[in-house]
Amino acid sequence: xxxxxxxxxxxxxxxxxxxxxxxxxxxxxxxxxxxxxxxxxxxxxxxxxxxxxxxxxxxxxxxxxxxxxxxxxxxxxxxxxxxxxxxxxxxxxxxxxxxxxxxxxxxxxxxxxxxxxxxxxxxxxxxxxxxxxxxxxxxxxxxxxxxxxxxxxxxxxxxxxxxxxxxxxxxxxxxxxxxxxxxxxxxxxxxxxxxxxxxxxxxxxxxxxxxxxxxxxxxxxxxxxxxxxxxxxxxxxxxxxxxxxxxxxxxxxxxxxxxxxxxxxxxxxxxxxxxxxxxxxxxxxxxxxxxxxxxxxxxxxxxxxxxxxxxxxxxxxxxxxxxxxxxxxxxxxxxxxxxxxxxxxxxxxxxxxxxxxxxxxxxxxxxxxxxxxxxxxxxxxxxxxxxxxxxxxxxxxxxxxxxxxxxxxxxxxxxxxxxxxxxxxxxxxxxxxxxxxxxxxxxxxxxxxxxxxxxxxxxxxxxxxxxxxxxxxxxxxxxxxxxxxxxxxxxxxx
Length: 494
Description:
Strand 1 (243-244) and strand 2 (253-254) form a beta hairpin. The protein is elongated, with a radius of gyration of 36 Å. It has 3 domains: 26-81, no CATH class; 100-292, no CATH class; 305-494, no CATH class. A two-stranded antiparallel ribbon has the order 1-2. The protein is mainly α. The chain is built from 18 helices and 2 strands.
């Protein structure tokens, strides 16, 4: 009998030795950090560095063997924690608010020169409420239509569609004149307005609309040439013995009647401007697509309303006299003329403000810093404009006194208050904010009219220029506060 015996060798269990601790290879990691300095500085998370490491062939095995890290993510964490955030050079941002000071000064001159023709004609086309009302109606309607036409033209230019801009400007100009001229002529005929004031009102509408087309198409220098006959005639008339001694206390005043050659020079300016408008809108036949859409018309309505309200603010004293609600002192032209001349300066300062605000977007680190600095820049631009406007208004006021026109200090301060309001309004419109400007302006007009009507109902005589000064001051302050609030937002300067 045999037996089988199994021998089992019992080996005592010994715990495995722990893996050697990985110690980062300091020199290798430092060299890698130097090689990836720009990548690490521009990264906002260690995962970006990990992705770059793997793209360069550094996987978990290489990270362990060469750099002493358990995996590539651990290595990326060390590189990220040892770097300083530096996104590098900022990309060059194109300048969107470039401007030319000569261009803006020229536009200011073009806005103001027609005022010289008004100064000569003001004492000879005026009259009763019917005559003055016809001229004011022509001015307000043409101003509103010109604002809308300007918007439509610039809208096409902004889309890089010059032929489309030329087509819509020409057709729009013809459509506007086809409505305004019969309307003005019909009102003048029904009110039995004399022929010369009627022709003046019609010529005024033609000039405002056609000059808009010339300006939108960039024909400032050509418009200056077109203005030469009328301005030369007015200057020649004023310097050829047209000033006569006035009553006691008045230095001088214009005497009349105005010679026919002066009227002919003025009509020559209107005709030349109309010819220019047709010539500069010639390229519309190459335009494609529809001339205008309902969306375009809807977008033009606020701009037309802005032109209407602005005109009403400037001619408020004249409107009050027509309605018989008050007896304004002075002339509305003495408020409108310095504002017209200063519009070129206002455009230049506004472009400078928007350019600086655009640069602030690149230089400021926080929204609060941008908000504060943008508002201070806007206030500085407004102050600079008011100083220059005061100088222009002061010079014109002195000239008006020598011409024997009725000038009061309230007219000077009304011009400054309206100037502040217009500058704030233009700054808001440059950021696409138009409806609030119209609403606040209409409220100011309603307040002016309400004060005068209420005072008349109670038996008090309130000068219209005093009411205009108060309302203009409140309007200017309200629009300036709103502009500081709205333009302090970085999103308004995109």
